[in-house]
Amino acid sequence: MFLYIDPGTGSMLFSLFIGIAASAVFLFRSLIIKLKFVFSGGKAVARGDKVAPYVIFSDSKRYWNVFEPICDEFERRQIPVLFFTASPDDPALSREYKFVTAEFIGEGNAAFARLNMLRADICLSTTPGLDVFQWKRSKECRCYVHIPHSLDDLSVYRMFGIDFYDSILISGSCQEKRVREMEKLRNLPSKELIYAGSTYMDSLKSRFEKLETKTKNSRPVVLVAPSWGPSGILTRFGEKLISALAANNFDVVVRPHPQTVVSEKEILESLQTTFKGNEKVAWNFDNDNFEILNRADILISDFSGVIFDFAFIFNKPVIYADVAFDAGPYDADWFDEPMWTLRVLPEIGVQLKEEDFPRIGEIVNEALESQKLSENRDKARNEVWTCIGEGAKNTVDYLVKKHTSDAQ
Prior knowledge:
By secondary structure, the chain is of the alpha/beta class. The chain folds into 2 domains: 169 residues, 3-Layer(aba) Sandwich (Rossmann fold); 180 residues, Glycogen Phosphorylase B (Rossmann fold). The chain is built from 15 helices and 13 strands. α2 crosses α5 and α2 packs across α15. The chain is globular, with a radius of gyration of 23 Å. The relative contact order is 0.12. The N terminus is likely disordered.
């Protein structure tokens, strides 16, 4: 009779195994060095494998928009850096850099197994959950730096997502406030917070400004781009919302969150089957969301960070669905006051309740014409996005200064 191990237990056992293996390798390395020291008569012996000054880790190719400006800046300064990715088709792997070395290190647990024995001075990553699940801090990596992939309240991460990073590159005061509050609540050491700006937002802004002509549609294009999980639009309202939009004179484009494709596959397939053949409903799964954001006239979302990309770069109106956000799995659950994201939504967008679906056409058209929403977008942009245009420069400046000053 075969023994059955559920996925959760399997993941835990694998993490335990990786932790033990990493510790064993570290101890073995230390023992070898000590033996060489003894047999060499007490003289120092140079280590065979070098410590990389800078390592960048990306768990998905969809974060290349965050890292590309940083890699370009390292390349411009002719500073060597290692770029590790968990995506075999990451765009970084096809770039012809001289100073940036990109390497695919495996997917999922295979990637974390490699990272758990990382030898580096500084590791930069967007990936939350360091030292919480499979990804453990390597004893031979001195400093872990987190770079957010959205202009968002940092308590929107899953529980303890950024607790064990040493530094965080922030873009606005709302992020600093939340991090300091989490540190106080959990009695954590103070992290180094650096106002660096946002590399991917800078790139979006630059691309938008270079467009020779802006998109003009014969009829409004409504983009539905939600987050994922039980509080997301597709789970809560799916068919009802899409049907209500398609009943109006709109072109509807649904862009599911990448995690929906993995974790909510049945819901997604059911919706695609329901609207198959409907000429007003299209689906978008592009890795790069720039083209569809530029094409859309209005965005309908929930609490996804894409709201700020759309509102602050393309300066277009947002409608946010009235979903019962379950803060339970997130760091936000530790706070009595709502996340900055939920607080600012009523200022830059129009709330959509399920009972309003019959008049959704009217709501969309009103939002498209609202001057007040435009003014509020400018105000919110200034609050959350500092150092505009300087994200890559500030990031590399900090990493180099951190490496050189602490090495002295």
